[in-house]
From TrEMBL:
It comes from Subtercola vilae. The lineage of its organism: Bacteria, Bacillati, Actinomycetota, Actinomycetes, Micrococcales. Residues 272-281 have a biased composition (Polar residues). It catalyses: a uridine in RNA = a pseudouridine in RNA. This is Pseudouridine synthase. One of its GO terms (molecular function) is rRNA pseudouridine synthase activity. Belongs to the pseudouridine synthase RsuA family. NCBIfam families: pseudouridine synthase (TIGR00093). One of its GO terms (biological process) is enzyme-directed rRNA pseudouridine synthesis. InterPro entries: PsdUridine_s_RsuA/RluB/E/F_cat, PsdUridine_synth_cat_dom_sf, PsdUridine_synth_RsuA/RluA, PsdUridine_synth_RsuA/RluB/E/F, PsdUridine_synth_RsuA/RluB_CS, RsuA_PseudoU_synthase, S4_RNA-bd, S4_RNA-bd_sf.
Length: 281
């Protein structure tokens, strides 16, 4: 986080005071967006926004701790102390930093980093796939809270042959014990007499929702993997491996987070919950 010593404000000769804040091009360079010279070109080209407004003046100063900056409509993280890690959680790992029953947990991955990381949402022990680890509590709250409706995509291997009619049921809606549920998207990837592969995308934050949906339509889950979380894709990351998010991935994630916190979404904090409250598959 930028300290007060990084600001350009100071008492000048003769008692004058320089403008407060840090020059925008300096902030962009420090955030790793581009060199200071290229950052100046981005500003004059009208590609940089501060708090939603286009800035073209090279003399613009900002507060990196409070102002929100975007380049080409993609959010930029100005706080270089924040870390964002993608984990392909293996089966058998519980989504806890210290499991009270002594089961293998996420501490084996968070201990690899100097920062104090925690997980964004949860996956059941028997579900594998994409899980975010970070020390950014604000972003974690937005992404994990059910009221913000972040899209998640799962691939499930299920029992028996799945028909197109069953896929249609998932997208039209089914009734579960805790109320109706509708998949935002569902498609059949492969099918045989013994098992099928189904892709399900939904924004619901209800517990074990994918497993319960597929059980309800007569196809219990054999194996479940979360392949996508918001704009992030698991890609070729192997089970048990971790990596830092790329700049583009982080920008997309921050952009999603800021959009979710827009005034018309309301403040999810007033609804209760915590940063680990999303669907567990």
């Amino acid at each position: 986080m930028t300290s007060s010593t990084d600001f350009d404000s100071a008492d000048g000769a003769g008692g004058g005071t320089l403008p407060e804040g840090v020059r925008l091009q300096k902030v962009l360079a420090a955030a790793g967006v581009a060199s200071r010279r290229v950052s100046e070109e981005l500003i004059t080209a009208g590609r940089v926004r501060v708090n939603g407004e286009i800035v073209r003046e090279l003399g613009r100063r900002i507060d990196p701790e409070t102002d929100k900056v975007a380049v080409d409509n993609t959010a930029v993280q100005l706080d270089t102390t924040k870390r964002y890690v993608m984990l392909n959680k293996p089966v058998g790992i519980v989504s806890s930093l210290a499991d009270q029953h002594g089961r293998p947990d996420l501490s084996r991955y968070t201990s690899l980093y100097e920062e104090r990381l925690f997980n964004v949402g949860r996956l059941d022990a028997e579900t594998s796939g994409l899980l975010i680890l970070t020390n950014d509590g604000e972003l974690a709250h937005v992404l994990a809270h059910p009221s913000f409706g972040v899209m998640k995509t799962y691939i499930a291997q299920v029992e028996d042959r799945v028909s197109p009619q069953t896929i249609s049921k998932l997208t039209k809606g089914i009734e579960l014990d805790d109320g109706p549920i509708v998949a935002d998207k569902a498609r059949l990837l492969d099918s045989s007499d013994r098992s099928s592969l189904v892709e399900v995308t939904l924004h619901s934050g209800r517990n074990r929702i994918v497993r319960r949906m597929l059980e309800e339509v007569g196809h219990p889950v054999i194996e479940l993997v979360r392949r996508q979380f918001g704009p992030l894709h698991l890609g070729s990351l192997k089970a048990g491996d971790v990596r830092d998010l790329t700049r583009d991935e982080l920008g997309a994630l921050l952009t999603l987070s800021r959009a979710a916190k827009a005034p018309d979404t309301g403040d999810a904090r007033s609804a209760g919950g915590n940063s680990t409250g999303d669907a567990r598959g």
